[in-house]
Amino acid sequence: MSDAGGFVYKRSVLVLLAMIAALWFALSDLRVEAWHGLLPLFEWMETTPFGVIGKTWGWAFATVEAFHLLAMALLGGAVLVADGRLLGLVLRETPARQVQEQCHTLFVWSLVVAVFTGIFMACGVASKIYYLEVFWYKMLALSVGVVFAFFVRRPLVAHVYQVPSNTIRLVAIASVMIWFSVAATGRWIGFSG
Amino acid sequence: MDRKKIASNAARKDAQLAARLASLGIVVGFVIYWWNELQAVREMLELAYG
Question: Is residue B1 part of a domain?
Answer without folding.
Answer: no
